[in-house]
Amino acid sequence: MVALPDWMALAPALSLALASLVLLLADSVDPDTTNTGLLAGISVLGSLLSFGFAGWFITAGTGMADSTGVALFNNQLVVDQMALFFMAIVGSVTTLVVLASYDYVAEHSYQAEFFVLVLLSATGMSLLSAANSLATAFVALELVSLPSYALVAFLKENKGSVEAGLKYFLIGAVSSAVLAYGISLVYAATGVLRFDGVATAISSGTVQTIVDGSVQAQAGDPAVPMAILGVGILMIIGGVAFKTASVPFHFWAPEAYEGAPAPISAFLSSASKAAGFVLAFRAFAVAFPIGDLLAAGGAINWVMAFQILAIATMFIGNFAAATQETVKRMLAYSSVGHAGYVLIGLAAVSGSGEGLSLSMSAGMSHLLVYGFMNTGAFLFIALAEYWGVGRRFEDYNGLGREAPVACAAMTVFLFSLAGLPIGGGFFSKFYLFQATLNVSAWSLAAALIINSALSLFYYSRVVKAMWIEEPTGSRTIESYPMGLYTAVVGAALVTVLLLPGFNRVSEIAFQAAQLL
Amino acid sequence: MIPAETYLLLSAAIFCIGLFGILTRRNALIFLMSVELMLNAANINLVAFSLQHGNLTGQVFSLFTMALAAAEVAIGIGIVLVLYRNFTDVDVTKATTMRW
């Protein structure tokens, strides 16, 4: 077997970047093109390639030979199983989103720019999965954020979209400044930005420096000021909370998701959230190992911080979702609630080793399943917007009679989100539950169960409206858009297939977390 | 050499001034300036401790931060522009078509 060159390990990110460049080229050749088929085709091809590469590398065991994975650029980027796992999530969500956008942007101008921004943002997410230093993580995070601000405000004649873009941008700018300040404090305390260097500084208690790519203690052995390090870590948690739409930086999410074009809501709530979590998983597992932190004099107990955040996020997200009047806003709050479930992956950590891998792999598996079911649900909203169905629950009355296939798919998404055994969501929540029991975190387990039960109530409101209620008023559905239908039905199929296939997913996730 | 604590105090003060501006001002442009202050507080830390630690990591990273701040402002000004077109104002509290 021929060994591929090392840089090929980044192929999932590179194919997304390449596709965006090809799109820019197509746009400069014909700036006013309305050939949506070509533009969407290039984007789908690029994101499918990205997904394909990631899947191929996972099955081929790339980065498993060495405990550090494939290290690139002096260890600034590391492609290991975890990076590939998240690259696969990003690739699949991006494929679904650009496929659905084919119909959604057909009437808009600046179509090429739309697809370019989506792909650039996806490139950032892919790179973020591999970031192994606070510097590359920050740059990749901004590459995710900047295009998505523009995408949320894409409908620039639409007040809701502009307002959503403004709020997303304002809170995003503040949180990236907080994150940058946190990174600068961690650098001040430890002298390095690379994750392995930070970990060495914490475990040895002395400031480190990097000489010729390897971490060394600095001359004179100055001690790490633990208080400054603690404040820095706290600020990094803030930056992560924004990106994953968790409490206390969650309040942009309902606004941004409601106002944004629905495919973009799908993209942000699934892929962007996953990207935020991969940064959190890698940074907190590799750079700030909890055992060493506590041994070094308790700079900060981030497991405790994440426990509080997880419980608060679950309750706030789900209770707010239960009181909403519009379907899209309900889904937006439910996605905040799901961020709370995934936070269990960081909150149910006990020491390192087995306990760490179990809880993190539970979070990772939930993100993968969530990537399909949540994207699908938002794309169904895109379909409803395309038909001109209203935003409230009542407007969905009787939709099941006119569009049975799409409504059946939506039913699968919603019940899977709630955790019924109709899709992969059942097992992934069960796995999270198991992770909480493993460390006897009863409050987390209770919050998970209470909120799942509550979520069934508000999800089934939509299902009831679609199938049971009588249609009100006259509504005629004239066309069945191909791209949106393919994406919605495809996502539903994968959600159902993840029920028998979940075992394989959790195995891969567990292995990936173990190698970290 | 000036002790490291001085730089930390300076950067913390600038960071807090920026945060104060964000929480109290309603003009979107002043909001952008406040964010710049917060980012530059981070830069002060990075550059000061780069000297303190005797490696260049912090200085190089502060160059990245500046470039990213510029890109962020470019996007921000674009959004402020469409805000003005839609709401005929750059007051961030005027845009309230949605409520939570």
From TrEMBL, chain A:
Q: Which GO biological process entries does UniProt record here? A: ATP synthesis coupled electron transport
Q: What is its main location?
A: membrane
Give a yes or no for keyword Transmembrane helix in this entry.
Answer: yes
Pfam families the UniProt entry points to: Proton_antipo_M (PF00361)
* Bilayer topology: Multi-pass membrane protein
InterPro entries associated with the record: NADH-Q_OxRdtase_suN/2, ND/Mrp_TM
Residues of the NADH:quinone oxidoreductase/Mrp antiporter transmembrane domain: 131-454
Which key words are in the record? Answer: Membrane, Transmembrane, Transmembrane helix
What's the domain of life for this entry?
A: Archaea
Tell me where it resides: Membrane
Membrane spanning residue stretches: 6-26, 38-58, 82-102, 114-131, 137-156, 168-189, 223-242, 274-296, 302-323, 330-351, 363-384, 405-427, 439-459, 480-502
Give this protein's Gene Ontology molecular function annotations: NADH dehydrogenase (ubiquinone) activity
Q: Report the HAMAP family cross-referenced here.
A: NDH1_NuoN_1
Q: What is this protein called?
A: Oxidoreductase
TrEMBL record, chain B:
Give the source species: Haloarcula argentinensis
Q: What class of enzyme is it?
A: oxidoreductase
An example Gene Ontology molecular-function term: NADH dehydrogenase (quinone) (non-electrogenic) activity
Protein name in the entry: NADH-quinone oxidoreductase subunit K
GO cellular component terms given for this protein: NADH dehydrogenase complex
Quote the EC number.
Answer: 1.6.5.9
Where is the chain membrane-spanning? 6-23, 30-51, 63-84
Q: Which family does it belong to?
A: Belongs to the complex I subunit 4L family.
